[in-house]
Design goal:
- The complex is a heterodimer.
- In chain A, 76% of the residues lie in helices and 1% in strands.
- Chain A is mainly alpha-helical.
- Chain A folds into 2 domains: 203 residues, no CATH class; 245 residues, MetI-like fold.
- Chain B is mainly alpha-helical.
- Chain B folds into 2 domains: 140 residues, no CATH class; 222 residues, MetI-like (MetI-like fold, Orthogonal Bundle), CATH 1.10.3720.10.
- Chain B is 64% helix and 5% strand.
- The termini of chain B are far apart.
- The chains are: A mainly alpha, B mainly alpha.
Chain lengths: 486, 449
Amino acid sequence: MPLLWTLTIILVLGAVGYVLGRRKAIASAGGDTRLLHSLPGYYGANAMILTVVPALLVLAVWLIVQPLVIERSVTSLIPATTVEEIGSRSLVMTEVRRLAEGIDTAIEVGALTTGDARALSTEFTDIRARLGEVGVALGSDVTPQVLVAAQEYRAMKATGQAIMTGVVLVLAGLGLAFAYARTHQEFRARNAVEYAILSILLLASTIAILTTVGIVLSMLFETFNFFELYPWREFFFGLEWRPSFEGGSDLGLIPLLWGTLYISVIALLVSVPIGLFAAIYLAEYASRRLRSVAKPLIEILAGIPTIVYGLFALITVGPLLRDYFAEPLGLGQSSSSVMTAGIVMGIMLIPFVSSLSDDIINSVPQSLRDGSYGLGATQSETVKQVILPAALPGIVGAILLAASRAIGETMIVVLGAGAAAKLSLNPFEAMTTVTVKIVGQLTGDTNFESPEALVAFALGLTLFVITLGLNVLALYIVRKYREQYE
Amino acid sequence: MTDATATAAPRPHGAGSLLAQDERTRRRNKAEARFRAYGLSAVIIGILALVLLLVSILSNGLSSFRQTFITFPVMLQAERLDPEGNRNPAEMAEVTTFGYLPILAQAFVEHVESLGIEHDVGLRDMAAMISDEAPAQLRARVLANPDLIGQTIEVEVLAGGRIDGFFKGRVTLASAERDRNVTPAQLVLAQALAEEGSMETRFNWSFVTAPDASGQRPEAAGLGVAIVGSFYMMLVVLALALPIGVAASIYLEEFAPKNRFTDLIEVNISNLAAVPSIVFGILGLATFINFAGLPQSAPIVGGLVLTLMTLPTIIIATRASLRAVPPSIREAALGLGASRMQSVFHHVMPLAAPGILTGTIIGLAQALGETAPLLLIGMVAFVREFPAAPPEGLFDAASALPVQVYSWTQRSDPAFVERASGAIIVLLVFLIIMNAVAVILRRRFERRW
């Protein structure tokens, strides 16, 4: 039975449960709903939840576990010689799965009967040609071993599916019966339903944790795989980045990190003064009207997707810098450069710095300003000598957050910084960053067993650790600072 | 006192006239004016950067909505297009686009002759002025309506990318000298045809509706598949992120006890909001594609990744709007005998709904513009077929708007730069609409307590 049908039946059972539960509750109170503990709908909902939720949970777990179990037992059927012939175990399994699915499709369209499928043998039929007729393309000719494995795969899958459908439907039925039996005038249906809803809410809020765990685990595993193929010392301290897909590549982190930091520093040199001065001006000097126009305008910059900044760097800023600065000064002919990416990224970060600093400056108590003015200080003296020192921790936090943004930014550097990994001081030269290389190593067809692809996960983990550290530090500082004036 | 008189040269501060500023006051006032000017110029630089960004994109991209078309009559010869003579589309489909190419080229040459335009363009170069996409379009039109065969019909075909560039000012006679793909003579002929009215540049809907085209035919490339793909991903994000985000916020804001576990959730949410987007791409690649075996370039995978990215935004916005509902509402509900769950779902939620909706739309807008994670899950693939209708279509290959911009920037023909900027304009229009809806919702329904 297809999955969709199982699902539909469960949902229909749930609806039936709702009606039955509600009806029985009302009947138990002799038709007077005032005698019930909860509103009648809650009795129905209780029956529905008990019918649907356990069944669906089991279904979900089964769907995740079954392929893993089948995979493992089928893999053990394949002799080592076949594995050597085809290349790797995972390739053989792909082949097996393809063949099994192909046979299923053939049965579906009627090219094979179920009996034919069972009796298939490599000696008498050209399976590849026969499946080709029904539109299933196989990579290579079918060997007997693969056929045996595929038949076993199909058989296990079919039994698994049948058992699963049975178990799930019985569970739904049991849930329904249990809920129906429990439904009675005195039963606290609302409490039961609300408990279930609360669990769902709790489950939803753990997604955040699951995501973090998923991020860390997915990168950690592949990073371990990478360090088995490539020495970690050379990754962290290598001064050369020269991947070659024939093997023997140099995958040193240092040049990428250098490019990342160089670009981030330029971006901060652009964004911090502009953002900070803009925040000071808007918070301390600007008239209400100017503020109401200028603040949203600057914040639009924050809403623009980074790909737009990337294109801006590629078609406008890059050529501009090349034609008016780099070439006349004899510093390079490349339009993608550290400077291009840095300046554009700086523009992107202006609203980030300015709105965070704005909040922080506004939260400095007015009494500090008044005291300073009372002593005869001018506005700028008040800002420089009273407000900024008071707001400094918060501003440092904002700058750290901006730095973490800059380090993790991808599209601007992909389009604006270039792809050559270099350790150079010339800001008009093309350099590359960690994020550019992650994109570079993982886009297109990649073989996840080569160090050249796996290095991307190690790079990702490095990036994650750096940005996480900066974020935690920044949040800590900002929080500490907030407490100071609250 | 003698000492004092000896050093009395500088007047004590503040002893001067009120009307004339002394040196120090002047200096301080100057510093004040300078500081103010720095602040103002920072604001102006910020706004200028915005203007420059928009002007650069608009000036490069607006022309992609216009396209040059050539109009001329074509005699559809039956013996070449339908050798069997049955007008049966299945048989006629055996004539490939290569069968239509000479017919179009010949008709074009004859048309130029009939107009009496003097030119020195070779036959080959004349055929090259028509887009490579044109025979395929003519073939589709004929197959859809076999009765056209044997008639002479007016066709309107795309001009080649360089000819189109000439009318948009991207290609000039001087640049054509150095260009291997176009000759100045072709441009002169194009100019003459335009004066005769056979060639015109006008608004081109197919930029928004047509699928992508290969690297040699920038004139035919469109955003259709990308828009559909982005739309599907937004559907997935909306269907998952909104309920999960709202449920999580309700738990954290209304029910969560203050303990280590909820602290952990809080820290996680604020950190996830700041994790670089590319890391989510790695997560998607490792879990959804490599582990769960979902197909590459599918909107469902993109949607899942973007959901995880958007969740923190939605949770933060929802919590803020839940917090803005005054406690008196909850207390009144509880006082009338509602349970806590009932007070939240029947009273607090409806009042917080506008804020939640605004936050969701802003989160969606963010997700719509996100590019980096989609690159890793294979959305850069060249896709020409429109995905099927959902739910199956969610598993078909598709592109996405921002990724389309990226893949166009990676192609060599400069006409694709114009296309990429045009795609950005479409993207920005969608973003402006979404943000405007969010602002209107907020203005219309926001309640101050």
